[in-house]
Design brief:
Layout (H helix, E strand, L loop, with lengths): L5 H13 L10 E4 L10 H24 L6 E4 H8 L1 H4 L1 E2 L13 E4 L2 E5 L4 H10 L8 H9 L3 H10 L4 E3 L3 H6 L1 H7 L5 E4 L27 E5 L4 H11 L3 E6 L7 H7 L4 E4 L5 H11 L4 E4 L14 H7 L4 E6 L14 H7 L2 H4 L13 H24 L3 E6 H11 L19 E6 L2 E6 L28
Parallel strand pairs: 1-2, 8-9, 8-11, 9-10, 11-12, 12-13
Antiparallel strand pairs: 3-15, 4-5, 5-6, 7-13, 14-15
Helix pairs in contact: 1-2, 2-3, 2-16, 10-16, 16-17
Length: 471
Amino acid sequence: MATTSHASQSGTAHAWAALGGDPALLDRVRHQGTGGLPSRLPVLELARSAVAVCALAAAELAARRTGGAVPAVRVDAGAVTAAFLSDRLVRVDGRAPTTFAPLSRFWRAADGFVRTHANYPHHRARLLAALDLPPDAGSEALGAAIGALGAADVEERAYAAGGLAVAARGLEEWAAHPQGRLAAGRPLLTSAPVEGLDAPQPPRRLPEPAGDALLPAAGLRVLDLTRVLAGPVATRTLALLGADVLRIDSPGLPESQEAHDDTGMGKRSALLDLGADDGLRVFEELLESADVVVLGYRPGALERFPGLTPAALAARRPGLVIARLSAWGAYGPWHGRRGFDSLVQTATGIAEFEGEADEPGALPAQALDHGTGYLLAAGVLRALAEQHDDGRARLVELALTQTAAWLVNGLDKASDASDAQPGWDPEPWLTERDSAQGRLRYALPAVSFEGGPADWARPSGRWGTDAPSWR
């Protein structure tokens, strides 16, 4: 039986206000059903609220582009739960993905716990090198090395070597940390005109929608420069809504095909070396007709390539919407550090809060990634809706730590008590289709509004095998 959650409406209202949305449109949203994601923190409320504002932003943009009324938005907790677990529920010919490598886990240090991330070969190599271990070292050797050091020492050694390890902190300890204080003082997200442009830009209208009028991103071109997981979730959502999404990766930085099976829905994927003259030339040609650029690398990582700052991008492509996300934020002492959802959970005190006895735990999904992804997509859609009025270039910015602060401090911790069911069954929200990899099982979209798309136009393909060109 469908139910309306007032707590979710409150979370939705908070996120919608952060997006600068018209509060009157919240009446178009209905929350219903039960889902999973049981936890001490209100993960299901975060998930429903993030999906709700994304769907509402899509409905708003559809109305602006067609001149009609804003369609009704339905947020089903079961569909939302499946979407937030999509990286774990995806299957190819019945094969489950490997979510974490053997060296990506919690370890007991001399004075606490450390969480490492070593899913990618280069991150594994840097982590081992940071602790003076040989490249073929395994779990036993790494555990012994970490156990002989303090957690903060491991964290700093890994950072200095370009690896990934963070000390487990409590909520209060993170609140007192310089990066934690800054994140807590920031809004959930920011969206504003791009600064640093030398001259006023002429207004640029959105292209006329082609085909189905209730695909609000139809006719739009999105350059996707992101990696697992929040950024690809955002651009997967834009692809659902009709955008031509072209993901660009470096040929020297491999990606997991299993991750792409989940987040590559509706997109194409190409390899391009931005450090080479030919690669940069192709990127410039793509940028000439792009409407959105999504950046998901740590602050400073892309700026080493010519012309990839927001101001430089907007100067070359007037009216561009630029969306940028990072783990720790583009500010503070940790702004240049690498990070993933599991590490942010650990550093911010979430892992300790969700743990048992003296063992850290984890949220029931990569909720910071997924939540930030839907918020990022919502930010892009709202920027496009505002651009419909004035055509100005805009910058949307989010960070996993800001989403974490919202989860810990901004949402009702009692809100999930009746709607997050431990025995939740995902089957009603899963479907299958043939793909280049085999028979693909995946979670259906959670972003839903009256007359909107029910599924992606195409399944995920093979990572890095498409031409770097628009359709």
